[in-house]
Amino acid sequence: MFALEFLSTCKLANLTVRAELGCCLLHRKGRLTIDGCILQCESNPLDYLSCPIVSTASSSSEVLPSQTKSNSDGVFVSQTRIEGGAKAVLTSGDLALQRVRVIYARTSLLFWFDVEQMCDQIDHDKPL
Prior knowledge:
SHCBP1-like, globular, mainly beta, seven-stranded mixed β-sheet, F-box protein SKIP5
């Protein structure tokens, strides 16, 4: 039900991935960077089952605050065309969609976004 599965840190660049049913990319662990790609889910009566990017990764409780952000799990998308599916991204772990930007071109939409652990919100009423 998926075209490509990722279990470790990886980068995709200038690649077209097409899925007839299911997802184009299944991210389970590591840092997945998607740059300048085209992700296509074919339209059909079961379109609600299709999603170009699915992330099941969870942020590890073992990660220390002193560790750099580059060691954390996540999906990082830049200048990528996404077509079809009920949603562009589906997360089932504890990562969340963040920093979404979209550019509408004549023939397509280009996306930039991150899927990573939510940072703790700062409570401005609490003294430091």
